[in-house]
Design a protein that fits this description.
- The complex is a heterotetramer, with 2 copies of chain A and 2 copies of chain C.
- By secondary structure, chain A is of the alpha/beta class.
- Helices cover 37% and strands 21% of the residues of chain A.
- Chain A has a 7-stranded mixed beta sheet with strand order 11-10-12-13-15-14-21, with helices on both faces.
- In chain A, β10, α9 and β11 form a beta-alpha-beta unit.
- In chain A, α5 runs antiparallel to α6.
- Chain A is globular and about 85 Å long.
- In chain C, α7 links the parallel β7 and β8.
- An 8-stranded mixed beta sheet of chain C has the order 2-1-3-4-8-7-10-9, with helices on both faces.
- Chain C starts with 16 loop residues before the first helix and ends with a helix.
- Chain C has 2 domains: 260 residues, Rossmann fold (3-Layer(aba) Sandwich), CATH 3.40.50.970; 34 residues, no CATH class.
- Chain C is an alpha/beta fold.
- The chains are: A alpha/beta, C alpha/beta.
- At the A-B interface, α11, α12, α13, α17 and α20 of A face α11, α12, α13, α17 and α20 of B.
- Bound molecules: thiamine diphosphate (2 copies), iron/sulfur cluster (SF4) (2 copies) and magnesium ion (2 copies).
- One iron/sulfur cluster binds next to loops of chain C.
Chain lengths: 612, 612, 311, 311
Amino acid sequence: MVSSDRSSQPISGAALQKEVLKDAVIRLAGNSQDGIQTIGGFLARLAGRTAQEVMTYMTIPSTISGGPSIFQVRMGTGEVLSAGDSADFLVAFYQHSLESHIDSLRERGVLIYDSDHVKPDLSDKRFIYFGVPITGLTIEAVGGSAREKGKNMFVLGLLARMFNLQIDKLRQLIQERFASKGESVLRNALLAFDAGFAYPADSVLKRYYYFEKEKDEDGRVQITMDGNQALAYGLIAAGVRYGAGYPITPWTSIMEILRSELPKYGGTFVQCEDELAAISTALGAAYAGHTAVTGSSGPGLSLKMEALGWAVMAEIPLIIVNIQRGGPSTGMPTNVEQSDLLQAIYGSHGDAPRVVIAPENVEGCFYCAIEAARIAREFSVPVIILSDQSLATRIEAFPEPDLEKLMITPQLDLAPRGADFKPYPLDGPTRHAPPGARIDGKYPTVTGLEHDEHGHPSANPAIHMRMTARRREKLKKLAASLPRPEIYGDQEGDVLLVGWGSTWGPIREAVRRLRAEDKLVGHVHLRHLHPLPNGLERLFTRFRQVFVVEMNDEGLYGFGQLATLLRGRYAYQSIRSITKTDGLPYKVREILEGVRRLSADHVSTFSLYPNL
Amino acid sequence: MVSSDRSSQPISGAALQKEVLKDAVIRLAGNSQDGIQTIGGFLARLAGRTAQEVMTYMTIPSTISGGPSIFQVRMGTGEVLSAGDSADFLVAFYQHSLESHIDSLRERGVLIYDSDHVKPDLSDKRFIYFGVPITGLTIEAVGGSAREKGKNMFVLGLLARMFNLQIDKLRQLIQERFASKGESVLRNALLAFDAGFAYPADSVLKRYYYFEKEKDEDGRVQITMDGNQALAYGLIAAGVRYGAGYPITPWTSIMEILRSELPKYGGTFVQCEDELAAISTALGAAYAGHTAVTGSSGPGLSLKMEALGWAVMAEIPLIIVNIQRGGPSTGMPTNVEQSDLLQAIYGSHGDAPRVVIAPENVEGCFYCAIEAARIAREFSVPVIILSDQSLATRIEAFPEPDLEKLMITPQLDLAPRGADFKPYPLDGPTRHAPPGARIDGKYPTVTGLEHDEHGHPSANPAIHMRMTARRREKLKKLAASLPRPEIYGDQEGDVLLVGWGSTWGPIREAVRRLRAEDKLVGHVHLRHLHPLPNGLERLFTRFRQVFVVEMNDEGLYGFGQLATLLRGRYAYQSIRSITKTDGLPYKVREILEGVRRLSADHVSTFSLYPNL
Amino acid sequence: MSTATADTPPSGEKLTRKVLTGDHPTWCPGCGDFAVLAAFYRFLEQEQIPHEKIVTLAGIGCSSRFPYFVNTHGGHYIHGRSLPFAVGVSLSRDDLHVFVFGGDGDGFSIGGNHLDHTARKNVNLTYVIMDNFVYGLTKKQTSPTSPIGFKSKTDPTGAIDQPINPMKKLLASGATFVARSHAAQVKHMVEMYRRAYHHKGFSVVEILSECVEFYPGAFDAAVPRKQGQFIEIEEKKHDGTPEDEKRHDPSDEEAAFRLAHLEWPGVFGVFYETQRLTKNELEAQLNQRARERVKGKSDLEILRDTFAKMR
Amino acid sequence: MSTATADTPPSGEKLTRKVLTGDHPTWCPGCGDFAVLAAFYRFLEQEQIPHEKIVTLAGIGCSSRFPYFVNTHGGHYIHGRSLPFAVGVSLSRDDLHVFVFGGDGDGFSIGGNHLDHTARKNVNLTYVIMDNFVYGLTKKQTSPTSPIGFKSKTDPTGAIDQPINPMKKLLASGATFVARSHAAQVKHMVEMYRRAYHHKGFSVVEILSECVEFYPGAFDAAVPRKQGQFIEIEEKKHDGTPEDEKRHDPSDEEAAFRLAHLEWPGVFGVFYETQRLTKNELEAQLNQRARERVKGKSDLEILRDTFAKMR
Ligand SMILES: Cc1ncc(C[n+]2csc(CCOP(=O)(O)OP(=O)(O)O)c2C)c(N)n1
Ligand SMILES: Cc1ncc(C[n+]2csc(CCOP(=O)(O)OP(=O)(O)O)c2C)c(N)n1
Ligand code: SF4
Ligand code: SF4
Ligand SMILES: [Mg+2]
Ligand SMILES: [Mg+2]
């Protein structure tokens, strides 16, 4: 990547080659016990503080006691859209780290390894080798007793030097993180960090790296966090003060944040005995007049399906967060998949229309939470937020939200209701009266039985028809109010890529590359999945082919879950699917391959007999 | 309806007009306590015994203590396809019965009423009036002490005379039913019956009715039962000996039958603490090597979604019965709806493909149970049977199944497994080894985690891809083995009506009427909903329009649940929806109206911008 | 019956039976639940709780139709989950008075676990179980309280599973107030309602309420006019008399367990009562400590500070 | 350790630790669950149950990974539902020996109701709860046995909800065999396994098993080499000696409840044991009566007769 030559202050001036990068993908490979997440987190935070773009990616070991694990950071000054298909730098703590990940290092990439543990095959000339006795130097710096505990900080120091990072900011981050753990922990961390920074990496490598330039300051500070944090704080900003949940990976960290944070805001988050209780407790709070939240991952979402139907029927607002992971069943709990979409939409018995939205990146997690709360309140409907494992754990920097504008301080509406009070007027929005509100006349019993405008149970055929229509029509009204998504890239042409959720970055990058090849390609990313925004047909019909890119199975008929929905609605033969089920985020390359494969296989698009 | 003039023996010869009927719709309207279900059941059983066609329809009162309720019998010698849109005869026990149901009586229909309770508006000349002091005569016949308890038997006798029914067979039915209740009960029942029969209905009405002719005997005896009975006995014939459930209307009667019957076959049905336990217990029995069943209705199905996903992942065979009722949530528990289809297919988290089939009538309930068991065993997959409230409670006669051929006596396969034992071979069918089977080498741990061919947990990306494909491909293999459904009626032309489940009869009748109007109309009824049979596109493309008729909501985009599926698969603009949500079975008239409306609105079919 | 006092709602509306009457009950004539309802009216008339602050909740079952028949804020939730729903109401709205009604199937079968956890957490609400030893709404299946031998549609030759002992279950759950009553004893029910209501924390009352349709006569053994005996628990008066020795001390858990083991039909009244901080109070304390840490900052300021740390 | 006797499986295969060893455990080094597993091996080596008749089942959790580590037929089911799954196995296959393993979250939180109902029905199987007072697999959230004050990720300032008393819960459930053991006492665990296994009906053993990762030291108070006390229950010998007076009679439910109330860390051993017909036996009786009514007819004949009545 070509650089601008904005001048700078190298750490040590002499004879070193300055290599300017637009961005760099650094993969740290070790065991989860080594604290590689911590280094990654610091780098990401630092990038955020220096207004750089950053994105991370991590794996979680499948044994409880930890084990092999990676943390990958991509940071830079261009738009960072994905955590990177291959690494520019690989830090290998152990021989097994080297062996499992050397293939992810690009040619001419730099292998940094702990020469106390790792013996690379130096005869393989594809890579640049940089061995550092990380273990030994750390023990030396921190003192033998601390064993290998500071290796991560040592590596952080090493990278700081190599990349010419702002070490005052890094030291401050270390301070913030370890201050509460006691003085000696902090001291050891800084000792290790300094030792890493003191190692003359630049002179050994004969070069140092420098990020192209800082982004133009637009006055907005960046904040850095992972998707689950963004979602949790988004809920708080949205005025959510009550919630209930049960732990499950990767949802748990949201409930942990809410359990710690909500009391500060006068709210409460309850850990329940199971997911059935959790959604019920959240619905109790919602019935009592609050905007409430519950959440889970796959198996827990399945358990919430009955109560969710009650919320639809009783028209009680609720936010349900679902952090998707590999399914079905217990499946692959620490891998990513987008395979809960159809369940989110259709998973309850009966015609039970509810809203489903999905964030496209960490920033989107924050804003989806805000939007979910608004929709839930305005339409008195449950809203499901579909995030996923990769978004949940991925760290990104984004402009600090304008809380003055966004922050909602919730208020209970206990105003008395007049004699004409109808919770479900046929000609207007739902108007619940929470307990505590005086009612002239009949007090309502909110019910999961079919009911009339007054909420009174009825098995009258006409009422069931009208009320079924009511529940459907309010979602259509919502649909009408949604903005039609913009096409990124070409506005008409060969191929439109359609995506949802965390695939946003890789799809966008794929579109860039395809356009660079002079293909006419656009990208539409849907945040609103149910209801879909109106007018998509006007976008779809401008392209000869519409490929829906998802991380789920092609299904019995060759279509992923969103593709199935879109075909069901529009019945365009041009809509087809690019899917995958390996439990890993999309690599840009995989999308490009999908596009090529489907484009070649053009005939079948318009055949009347697909899938024979 | 025109008669053949086959001669017969009227009860009393003189001066009575003989009216020959092809079939008659008789609606009994009273309170559920009056035992009108009993009369209806007798009539239906009688029809079955005399090789006539019969179909019933009933409503269940919404208060626990009973209340207004109807039972409708349509019996005759033609093919009886639906319980009838309007009644030829209405028996009204009370004034409220008259008022609620007089509109269902066709013009020139006969109103039979209890003149002790009911005062019809005799000035309304649309109907023929026939008042009988039912209450008084019953008390007189049975003796005052029995109060009004025998009115239903009185009415049965009355109808027997009017319709020239075979009273020896009826008396025998009464005997069979009441024998176990004690002699005096039986005597009273017969006294009331005889009194009704003695009432000179024919001479008052100046006519008696006679069913056209008995169907040609094809040697097969008919049996008469409701859909839930047919399903339960079908399961037994299919070799199902173990099951577990939790009560819920209208599923409960299946579990009640199984709980009573299975012990005779050496099996066990367990009433569990809830639906989560029920499916788990059934899966335990399945894991132990049996073909097992669980079941429920809407709310309970929602609760089974997590465990169902485990069955998909672990590839454990299981039959799940779902008797659909009005939804969402508690909804309309005693009404009918076909709104659980998409949940049945997509209701679990993750990509969790399972089989869904639906019976089209009572006979179909029996054969679907048998097919479900076969598929579950052969493909080691959970199979959902979607019946509904109207099928569950509807009585029909059908040819007695050939049990010699069908009956399966289950066997446990505890043969030792060799060292090469693989439960999930990539290139072949699932081969579970139930506990008790000796294994050379590793014993399997059946799991809901993703796993390799040996069933061993793995988060390896390639394995998840291959195993996801495996679970999908086995359903495609099943699809390939399914017969392509036949088209009833015209084989190509204007309109193809597509249906599933209990709408079979009304759709078929609608097709007949449309064809009688010289329209080119066909009917395809799908028993296999997931996977769909292959080759449907060859049927659909022979018609200008394809209308999918279902009892569920038109959804956000104007399509019912099956229509959504079919469009998702085929993306034909010609596929559209006729839906309704009033909680009642289709009337033929409603389907005809739907066809007319959609046919008129032809333009929109091929618009590129539907549903703006 | 006490007249309205300072407790009278500000609007001056007096809680009368008329004001409190909701829909006409759909129960079978003679069903025990009518009396449970009548006693509830009477209890409310006595207590004069502000009308709009009363919440009656239920799951699914004949008994669970209760909220429709009381003209207060109400909720008819799903089968077995009324307690966690009520937990959400109680914990988020400490100003309300939450009453939950339901049957033995709803509470002890599908909902049994929620009962235990709501009890141990001592969430502030009152739970009334209308126990008829059968599934009424679904028309006569075995319930977890059906005695062995009871012929139901799911046990046509008689139930074989050992039923739960409701009192034992409730005591073991950690409930801080456990009582038992009988639908034939309106005064006794009113008294139990009263004491449950005034108890701070999770209070639960099991009321034997006959299903005349599917289990007639189930509780005759405790109905004096049917040759049964209705034995009330005599509670300790701590008056130092020798009679007092034999009386029951409701704070004595072991003694309560002994009462729970008495032969059918056992005794009626308050088996157990103790004081323990409610979850409502504990959460409030948590909140107070958290609020102190953020020192009167507004919601906006708190979140802004948090974000500042994430820069 | 006994040598193989007549019980030796027909194939002559001897159950050795080697034969029984499944996957290498994924537990953290030092986790108490290793010892629970080792004791299970030893117990099986002693009993020499036919290999193929052993079934080990579990839900989800660290402890619930147990089945993978034992080379027998096994099932790794979903969170909290292992018991009803095991009920299906036990009731439909009386020839098998069913062992269920799981954690405190799996058994007492999400699965608490299934425990109660499986216990009251006295389904023939053995259930082992590896109680570590915390959610291990999901990395340190409060569990229903976490003591008040325990700092977890969902209670960062310390747990506030009253935990359940596992022994009390198990006793109240109607379980016919209830015992308690400690992962630091392999011999004791083996003995509890043995007695649970030989008990006909539902037997349950709670084993305190330390989570070294998220709750280190939780059970030190009962570990002698950590200055704790491991107090075993002395059972009555019915030898008429005065010492015997003080010994515990496991058939005495009230006495068992008293033991359950002892102060932390309490005592270890068999709290309660009684005999009651198992559900397996009761269902078998039902079947036998039903079979007698159909008098040795084949399945085909029975169904044909039924249909004949529906003509
Ligand atoms: C999830 C679910 N399962 C089952 C049912 C059906 N159902 C409704 S009420 C009920 C039990 C009723 O018994 P109980 O709780 O004792 O109340 P009762 O009618 O006896 O007052 C059942 C099983 C349901 N509505 N929802
Ligand atoms: C339905 C569902 N909810 C939640 C989870 C997540 N989960 C897995 S194990 C577990 C609890 C683990 O605690 P415990 O049962 O005590 O076992 P331990 O790990 O401590 O041995 C939870 C909440 C899940 N897998 N499924
Ligand atoms: S069925 Fe039983 S419980 Fe239900 S209303 Fe009737 S008498 Fe009462
Ligand atoms: S997390 Fe705890 S319970 Fe789980 S394996 Fe590690 S030490 Fe054992
Ligand atoms: Mg009941
Ligand atoms: Mg645990």
